[in-house]
Design a protein that fits this description.
It is a single chain. 74% of the residues lie in helices and 0% in strands. α3 runs parallel beside α5 and α8 packs antiparallel against α9. It is built from 16 helices and no strands. It is found in: Membrane. Its main location: membrane. Keywords: Membrane, Transmembrane, Transmembrane helix. It is a multi-pass membrane protein.
Length: 400
């Protein structure tokens, strides 16, 4: 089909910025800000550490459910309605937790905030990818994930900067106040994107509701499951592993998370570039190798060297896994990009919940936290293996 759409650099910058900002809002100011907030909320006596872990679990469950809802609401006309709605839900639920110390209300709010996060995290990149594909600029799609890395630093700065000024539920106010203008602007920009409701796929064929799973997508799903289980262990337990293995007062006790954040910010640009230069599928395999080496480093060298390598290599790769897999999935099934994207994020969310559970079983059985990272090594090896069974899109579409 002839592509009649075009976009000037200013349009591209505006759209990618809007996408990055809405991910910063739901992921940075919604999900990740809870990690640095938790020690302060426990110290304030708002709830205990086990209660805080339960609140986090509710948020993760909401994220999984949100991604599953996005499978149902995958059409462009549905995304135009649901994306602003769930950004508003993020703002409302964040405002709610500024007003209460009730654990049930907090848990319910964080669950619903997770649902909003899951929907937006699927729909915003999927909508932007469709817009870019129409303009032959799909290779830029991964840049929206820069918002996640910046969100790590912004959320950490908001918590640290207001630590001595606020207490208890008040600590959520910086996230709530910053979310309102960013979410509104991002929603308005994305809602007006010129993306027609597709009646035909990229080859001109009438869109049909084909199966989500086939010989092309199943290996990609299995590979992505390995990625989700592999990355979540260091992303959850790396600061705790540093605390358990390093002497008191060591600079890396708080430094591992900063290293992850700093390496996360340029990662989308890097893997976008590598995907363009060498192809998304070879880049994904390289991504798995580097990420696997990072988690393995924490197992082989459980001291400062292993921690730094793990933080740097995982931080610089996990978002690359996301953007490359999403692009490969859409190339294999161009007529159901948002639906496939939602299914992948739901699977990713599920494996993120399985990872901490498996770690708990390992620790309860007498294993150490350092050796539990071996679970992540095995998961990433699993993902790498199945990445070699994913066909190249041009080969898949040229089959007889």
């Amino acid at each position: 089909m002839t592509n009649s759409h075009s976009a000037d650099p200013r349009q591209l910058f505006t759209v990618l910025t809007a996408g990055a900002l809405v991910l910063l809002v739901v992921h940075g100011l919604g999900r990740f800000i809870y990690t640095p907030l938790l020690p302060y909320l426990v110290a304030d006596g708002q709830f205990s550490a086990p209660d805080g872990a339960a609140v986090a679990t509710w948020n993760y469950l909401g994220y999984l459910m949100g991604a599953m809802l996005a499978i149902r609401w995958h059409r462009i006309d549905q995304i135009r309605v649901m994306l602003p709605l769930f950004l508003a839900i993020h703002v409302v639920t964040t405002l709610v937790v500024t007003q209460t110390d009730n654990l049930t209300v907090i848990s319910a709010s964080r669950w619903l905030n997770g649902v909003a996060n899951g929907v937006v995290f699927v729909q915003a990149p999927a909508l932007i990818l469709e817009w870019l594909v129409l303009r032959n600029r799909a290779s830029l799609s991964g840049l929206v994930y820069i918002g996640v890395g910046i969100g790590l630093l912004v959320s950490s700065g908001l918590v640290t900067g207001s630590a001595t000024l606020l207490e208890g539920a008040e600590r959520w106010w910086p996230a709530a106040v910053l979310s309102i203008p960013i979410a509104w602007w991002g929603a308005m920009q994305l809602r007006r994107l010129d993306v027609p409701v597709r009646q035909h796929d990229d080859s001109g064929q009438v869109v049909s509701n084909t199966p989500l799973l086939d010989r092309a997508s199943i290996p990609l799903f299995l590979s992505y499951a390995g990625a989700g289980l592999g990355y979540i262990l260091p992303m959850t337990f790396l600061p705790l592993l540093a605390k358990m293995t390093l002497p008191q007062g060591h600079g890396l006790l708080d430094g591992t998370w900063v290293i992850v954040a700093l390496f996360t910010i340029p990662a989308p640009w890097l893997w976008n570039k590598l995907g363009t230069l060498m192809g998304d599928l070879p880049a994904l395999r390289l991504n798995f190798l580097i990420q696997l080496a990072g988690v393995l480093a924490a197992v082989v060298w459980p001291g400062a060297l292993g921690l730094v390598l793990c933080a740097a290599l995982v931080g610089s790769t996990f978002l690359g896994t996301v953007l490359l897999t999403q692009r490969i999935g859409r190339a294999l099934h161009p007529h159901q990009g948002p639906r496939l994207s939602a299914a992948m994020v739901a699977l990713y969310g599920f494996t993120q919940m399985v990872g901490p559970w498996l770690t708990k079983q390992w620790l309860d059985a007498g294993g150490t936290l350092g050796s539990a990272f071996g679970i992540g090594v095995a998961a990433l090896a699993f993902g790498l293996l199945f990445a070699f069974f994913v066909p190249r899109a041009e080969v898949w579409h040229s089959r007889s």
